[in-house]
Each structure stands twice: as C-alpha cells, then as structure tokens.
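Possible race condition, two jobs.
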Amino acid sequence: MLKPTILVLCAALGGCSQLPDYQRPAAPIPAQWTQTAPVVGMRPASTIEWRTYFTDPRLQGLIATAIEHNRDMRAAVARVDEARALSGIARADRLPNVDLVASGTSARTPGDLSLSGRAATSHRSDVGLSLLSFELDFWGRVKSLNEASLAGYLASQEARKALRLTLIADVANAYLSLLEMEERTTLARATVASREQTRLLVSRRRDVGLAGDLDYLQADGAYELARAELANLERQRAAAANMLALLVGTEPAALPAGRKLAEQAIVANLAAGLPAEVLLQRPDVLAAEQKLIAANANIGAARAAFLPRISLTAGLGTASKSLSGLFDSGQGAWNFQPVLHLPIFDAGRAAAGTDLAEARRHVAVAEYEKAIQQAFREVADLLAATEQLAEQLRAQERLDKVQGERFKLADARYRAGVASYLEVLDAQRESFAAQQALVQTRRSQLSSAALLFKALGGGKQEEPAAKAD
C-alpha cells in the first residue's frame, strides 16, 4: 500500500513546477513607420536569397568567401556548437545516468579489532549497474535549467544568423565603398592630367604675352590641389580595400570581373510591412527574446532552491569474496539510498539567488525592448533615406551635366580670349566637385539598399539551422 501511495505523490508533485509563465513584452514601438512615403515593394526581405539581391558576380564571390572564412563568423558557429553541447548536458540531467561498475576490495583487519581476536584478511569483488545521485525533479528545478540552456542555444543560433546577415551587408557596403573610391580616384587622375595640360597651355600663352603670371599661378595651384586630392583618394582607396579584405577573411580565389556603381542592380523594392510583423522576425530581436526566455526559466530554478530535493543512489549486481564465485547462484546484491535535502538555514543564499534571477530577467526585458527600438529606428531611417537618396541622385545627375556644360563653355571662352582664367578655374572646380558628389551619392543609395536588406531581416538561410538532439 505504501509503494502506490509514494508513486501517486511523486506524480502529483511532478506538476508543481516553479517556472513562471513566459509572456512576450509588448513591443515599445509605433504601429506604423514614421515616414510618410515608405518603400513600395512586393518582395518580403526574409524570402529573398542574398544572391538574388546582390547580382554583381564579383560581390557574390566576396560574400560567399566571407561567410566561410570571416573569423567572427567562425566564432559564431563555434558558439552555436558550444551552446548545443551545454544544452545536451543540461538535458541529460533530467534522465538517470546508469554506469557499469566493476570493483575489487582487499582489506586486513588487526586481531584486536577482529571478533575472533585474530588478524583477518578479506576480499570482495563487485560487478553491477550503478545509479548515482539522480534527482527527482518534483519542483521543476532541473527542467527549468534545461529550458534556460535550450533558450541559450536558440539565442546563439539567432545570433549566428544575425551576424551572417550583418556580414553580408557589411561586405556589400565595403565593396561599394571600394568601387566608389576607385571611380573617384579615376576622376581625380583625369583631373590631374587635364589641369597639367591646362597649366602647360597657360604657360605657353604667358610666353607669348596672352596670359599673365597670375593666370599661371592659378593654373599651377589648381594642378597641385588636384594632385593633393588624388593622394588623399588613393589613401582612402587603400583603406577601403583593407577593410574589405578584413571582412572577407582570406585572399579570395580568382573572382569574375565586377560592375561599376552605375551598373549595380541593387533595387530596394522591399516590402516594409508592419513594424510588429517585420521586427519580431529579425534574428537579433529573436536572439534577445531567447535570452529573455532563458532568464525567465532561471527564475524557476532559483525558486525551487527553497523546496526539498530528493536524490536517489542505487546499485544492482553481484558480489563475492572471490572473482571465481562472482557469478555463482545466490551472489546477487543491491543497494538503494534515497536522500532528502531540506533547506533550513542558508544565510539568505536562496533568497539572493531568486533576487538575482529576477534582476537578470528585468535586464533581459530592457535589452529585448531596446533591441526592438533600435531595429525600428534602423528600418525607419533607411526607408526615409532610400526615398530621399533617390531624389538626391536625380538632382546630382542633373547638376553634373550642368557643371560639365559650364566648364566646356568657360574653357572655350578663355581660349577665345573673352574670359579670364579665373572663370575657367571656377567652372573646372565645380565640375570636378559635381562628379565626385555624383559618385558618392550613387554609392550612398546602393549602400542604403544593402543595409535595408539587412534591417528588414533579409536573406534565406542557405544551410539548415542546427537542431538540438
């Protein structure tokens, strides 16, 4: 009668989990995006594979190489493996661990300690199965620890996805920046050559009395200024190349030729959707939520520390005073040892542990809400930037055309002797600035589109996410 009663009691106590019910905090963001003219598009970013979005073959090769060789990416993959292993360790604690144990013991007892008054030597051999300190999880302590470990594993998975998505956007942005610097450097070289020819022309005109020393000094100053700008752009180009190499992580194999900035078909026609629908699917937000779930589960484990713990130690096998008789009939042996741990006084340790778990949950809630707010701002900024940069690019293209025509007209007037060289110099400077600004604006628009892909949680995962065993 006693045994069924114990089983019923254990079953009843098994449902007394101290794990708090998890409730996702309300998203502290507006229901709509703040800009009035969102990007119109029918393609949800989360369903687009990055090769479809970034079509430059050279950029595709760089991104693929970075995903494989970037050191931060390798560390993130290793952290997923680490979290999966920790989750497996925690999960194993919910089941009894049974070991096969074989042992032998020899002992000598002095005569004054022996019942017979004579020294005696004893031998014992044991073989059997051993169950060591298995905890009956009445209050859900072990289950809560397992839930926390599983949530930590899932958080590491989402963090890896977030890092992968960030890496794709960073490589694209670095590649576009390198293209910008290369194109601006090419323009600067052409400007240096042009101003050198102009300086030579002014020098010849001065020699025949058609230009003065002031014109020559202005031409010479413009030439040196162009040389200085070229050196500055060369420095920035080298820095951009070094940044791209760092992100890629290795010297890539032979890559196909790339495209110019104007030929990049990166179009930000992505469906923004509603903030609550988009942001809650971003990997970084999902990682923050999994950390919150883990913090919530740790509260259950901390609360269970106030309650009794029952652990079992047992063994089943055979025993004999000699190896030869170990498996003879009648040599069966067993032991069973339940242990009850009832906390009485711990100087406030359990209460402090619960307070600590509660405080960490509050921290996790704040970090989760902050992640959502940061994601909202990032998307809202990029949606607005994409719209405005498109208009800025159109205006910059018109300005470049106007300044180019102005320079041609001023140069013709100077050669005809009806305008001063100062007019030519001013027109040349404005034309060069317009060309440089056009390249910068085009790169900014493309970079905005690349970052929007990341901000909206874009990119289907090529490899299946690892699963817990």
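Job #2 (started ~2 s after job #1):
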Amino acid sequence: MSVFPEFERALHEAARRRLSPDGQRVRAGRLRLGRIRRRSPALAMLAVLGVCAIALAATGVILTGAPVRPEELLNPNAGIGVSALGGASGIVVTTPDPEGGLPWGMRIVHTTRGETCLQTGRVQDGQLGVLGVDGAFANDGRFHPIPANALPRDVYHGSVFDQIGSETISCALEGKAVAGEHVGVDRSADPNANVSHTPPTDLRDLLYGLLGPQAVSVTYEFKRASHTVDVAATTGAYLIVHDFSPQEQAGYGGEALGTFGDLAPGPALSLITYRIGGRLCNRAPSLPPGAVSHLAKPCPSPHIAPSAPEPALHLPLQVSLATRAQTVSGLSISLIAPFAVTSASQHYTLMMLSQICGAPHGGRGGALESIDRDVLRGERISWRVDDPSTSGCDRHTLNVEVIYSPGEGLGRTIASATIHAPPGASFAAAPTPRTPYARRHRHSLE
C-alpha cells in the first residue's frame, strides 16, 4: 500500500527546515575594527578610510571590487544545475534602499535542470552585487558584482524539493509562481552574512516574487499602512525592501508557490491583482475551510487539473545490511531505474517508514533519502543510509518504498519491501523530533 499522505507531510516538514539559519558566530569584521581603534595612529587612519568608503556607498559613488565567487562549482546535471547558456536576465526590477545609497535589484536565472532562480542584491551601473560592509569582503566599502553563474550551493541534505532558498536567492521549478519574503537580510546583500549580531538598523526585509504575465500589482502592509506596488510587465516580478523591525526575528523567511494567475498572496502580501480574461480581479490570502471571501472583485477559482496516481510497480530491490554491536549501522538499497531523470522536477526517493510507537490512530513516521541528479533509464541507482532508525515499537523490521516522481502531482511507488534486522540485531530508535528552526517555508496548493 502506498503512503502518499506521509510522503507529502514529510516533504512539507523538510521544506520548513530547508531555510534554517546556520550556527551563530560573532562578526569578524566588527571585532577587527574594534581592535584597530585601540592600536597606533597609522592603523587608526586605516579605520577612518574604511568608514569613508562606506560613506561613499551611501552617496551612490562607490568603487568596484573583485566579483563575488560562487560558493562552489556546481554540477549541470545535479541539484539545481548551473546557469543555462544565456539563462540570466538583466535586472528586471529595482527598488530604493530605506537608508539611501545603491538601490536593490532582482534578476532571473534559468538553470540547466529546469529551475528558475530569483537573485537579489544591490545595484550599480546595471550590475547586481554585494557591498563590502558589515563584515562582507573585509569591509572594503566596494561594490562586488555577482556573476551570472554565482548560484548557491545545492543543499538538498538527502531530501527532494522543488524549491531552495537562501537570504538573497530563491529557486523554483520552471513555470512556478513565487511570492516570498526574507526577513532580516544584511544591507550588504551578502547571502553568507550572519545577522545574529547585526544592529537592527543595518538589516532589511525583502518581499519578492515572480507572478507571471497576468499579475498587475501587489499590496502589502507596513507600519499600519497599506501600500500597492506595480509588478514588472510580462514577468510579474516585484521587489520591495523596507526597514527591519526589532520585534522580528532575523534570518526568517517563507514562500508560497503555485501557478501563474492562480497564486494567492504569500508571506507579507495582503492582495494580488491580476488581469484574467480581460478584467481586473483580486486574490487575498487563502481562507480556512468554511470561510467566505468579501472581495469586491474576486478572481475565478483556480483550475486544478485532476490527477490520479499511476499504478504501483513491483520492481526487485537489492538490500544489504551492516551491523555494529547488535545495531544495524548501515543500509544499502539499489534497483534498476525504470525511468530517466532529466530535470529537477523528476526524482527517485527512498522512504523508510514505520508505525510510531504509542501514537494514536496508527500514526506513521520515517525518513526520506532522495537522488537529486540526472539518471539514465536502465541505470542502477542506490542509496546508502548510515544508522537507519525506526520510530516503531518493533525495532526488528523497517518498511521501505521507492517513489518515482515525474514532475507535478503525486509520485509513483515502483518498489517496496519489509527489511528484517539480522538475528540478534535491531534498528536504532528514531530520535525524538525537535522543534524546527525559526525559518518558515509555506507551500500553496493553488
């Protein structure tokens, strides 16, 4: 029997953990400036020059430094891929910074694996980049352009998503509408900045999205007032930057994903205006079951094409176990791939499931391990799981399924098995779930 409800819940829970902040550390740049002030007059002059460079940035006159380097060389056939040839647009939308100086901007990057990435930063001479302030680029006060191939690392951590994100970039499958926010972004636009020790006045909130050609404008609430901003023609792109509030939690974000013309407002938006069928209409945030909309010009209900799961296949699995001190320490599973994987919308996922011990109504839990690269039809694919665990009272068995997801809609079970621990051994008990990190990640089903 397939377990799609558990699969969907697990994906959504993993997605909420997707944008979790890194461990905290004190900004090296700020500590370094503090030490300079206590040294010789010559070094003190260097500190003054650094402050002057930052002041120049506020006036819009700023020197250019070395370009931003990608975090690592990506693989065009794995993860989100790399920027496709000619896949990076120019800057599609700009907006002023609350403090003045260089404006913010956003561009669209299409990747080799069918992802569309929205990349934000500061803008100078038509280029997107990072300012050398607040610890970025050793506080050199310069503007550092971001090359088109400077996409973030693909941090799947063994789970499949159709979206990834960091403080200044968001990637979703081609053709998806996106409405999101990043709360507490460093004014440098450095995606690697640790904002835990940054003064609130140096942080920004970014509202961004890509709503498609039907979108006309977005409305948001800020400082107890309603603001409406037109989106870019043809793309529906928008970018809004405003002050960070000390009452907010820095390093926080979320998104709504959907289809063009159908997406309801995501985080921080209160209304999206579309032009559908030649007339203007509005979409408000999704209502709870039974609630009634009071919009004067509501948009038509989204059209969701019905989809039925494909019948399960029963392909053979090769399974091997390793033990250490009466505990299963390793699990290897492989099979011959019946379908090719050619983009990020397709993937094979290993699900390890068990009944949760003591849970009411037969609750089920488990873990996901996914393959996030291109796969040839007929290729043997495999998973290696260290220290597999079970949440069930029966620690001697583990149920597994392999799901193939062709893109939109539900996946398809292509293989399943019940794995028994060797005599005298057992699977480890699953750790107690912890509260997710502060970052949120919301999917819209519209």
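DSSP finds three helices and 24 strands in the chain.
Logs attached separately.
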